From TrEMBL:
Substrate binds at residues 87, 107, 141-143. This is Pseudouridine-5'-phosphate glycosidase. The gene is psuG. GO terms for biological process: nucleobase catabolic process. Binds 1 Mn(2+) ion per subunit. It catalyses: D-ribose 5-phosphate + uracil = psi-UMP + H2O. Its EC number is 4.2.1.70. Catalyzes the reversible cleavage of pseudouridine 5'-phosphate (PsiMP) to ribose 5-phosphate and uracil. Functions biologically in the cleavage direction, as part of a pseudouridine degradation pathway. InterPro entries: Indigdn_synthA-like, PsuG. One of its GO terms (molecular function) is hydrolase activity, acting on glycosyl bonds. It comes from Microbispora oryzae.
Length: 306
């Protein structure tokens, strides 16, 4: 399949045409969310996790103005290494296309492109959400808005604790985005097993996720996402005391340096990696691998649904 406005790799196009399982992966986590050179290893590893789970990986990015669904080895390397690569949210897609720019896609842009290509399941680390200090800066990630009007299933470990978690959950409710816990009744805390916030629905199996997805389609009229919140295992989480201390420092540093807007998430992620001696990176990677693996299982259940 090749649309004029989108490039779908042969492997992904063939899998979609045959109704085989496909999992979308975002590229911002590679370009802006993880340090080099580990990021390229991780990008490859996540694709392998999807393959081992029996699905085809479709990493998404915009290259020279064209949204790509499924990247070749050179393209993946470009995302991981190109200096100054842009971070593209949904609203950046038109200027990127019109001006032939390249960039990594966030959850919002990835979800939009994946849904357009017919990919229903997406595995990532954490969603964007409502930033702390919202009343001063009104920084709410475009992820929430896109998920409120995009039919896609996103497997994530909640939202990063650098955000205001209760406010984010509230906004997800207001914007009618369905949230279910995977084998948990509490919203995960990304680096931490739980944020302490309750969620209303809990599922135990990938087949149950597929059942909810089918119900979304059958009910009709609600083109919103399904968030499957999948916690990092308790014994692999970041030490909560270390987490709280370094995060508080990072938030202070961001304020002192006046870091805002799109730069705040990468700044805090980086601060946490340094401040925890790399431990936050390990918890981050454990979370992402787990999510991508579960996304593959859900894609397999979804592909075999009838
Ligand atoms: N979660 C991660 N690493 C990341 C991000 C989320 O573990 O790099 C990225 C995602 O691409 C998400 C984006 O969509 O941060 C949110 O950015 P903003 O708050 O500027 O919308
Ligand atoms: Mn933002």
């Amino acid at each position: 399949m090749s649309r004029r406005d989108m490039h779908v790799s042969d492997e992904v196009a063939e899998a979609l045409a045959a109704g085989r399982p496909v999992v979308a992966l975002e590229s911002t986590i590679i370009s802006h969310g993880l340090p080099q050179p580990r990021n390229l290893q991780v990008a490859r590893e996540l694709e392998d996790v999807v393959r081992r789970g029996g699905a085809v990986p479709a990493t998404i990015a915009v290259l020279d103005g064209v949204p790509h669904v499924g990247l070749g080895a050179d393209q993946l390397e470009r995302i991981a290494t190109e200096p100054g690569l842009r971070k593209l949210g949904f609203r950046d897609l038109a200027p990127a296309a019109g001006l032939r720019a390249s960039g990594a896609t966030t959850v919002s842009a990835t979800s939009f492109i994946a849904a357009r290509a017919g990919v229903r399941v997406f595995g990532t680390g954490g969603l964007g959400g409502v930033h702390r200090g919202y009343t001063q800066v009104q920084d709410e990630s475009a992820d929430i808005d896109t998920l409120s009007r995009t039919r896609i299933t996103v497997v994530c470990a909640g939202v990063k604790s650098i955000l205001d978690v209760p406010a984010t959950l509230q906004r997800l409710e207001t914007r009618q985005v369905t949230v279910v816990g995977y084998r948990t009744g509490e919203f995960p805390g990304f680096y931490l097993h739980t944020s302490g916030e309750p969620i209303d629905w809990r599922i135990e199996t990938p087949a149950e996720a597929a059942g909810i997805m089918r119900a979304q389609d059958e009910l009709g009229g609600l083109d919103s996402a399904l968030i499957v919140a999948n916690p990092v295992p308790l014994d692999r989480q970041l030490d909560p005391a270390l987490h709280d201390r370094v995060l508080a420092e990072g938030l202070r540093a961001a304020e002192e340096k006046g870091v805002t807007g799109q730069a705040i998430t990468p700044f805090l992620l980086d601060y946490l990696v340094n401040g925890t001696g790399g431990a936050s990176l390990e918890a981050n990677l454990t979370a992402v691998r787990g999510n991508v693996g579960l996304a593959a299982e859900i894609a397999v259940a979804w592909a075999g649904r009838d």
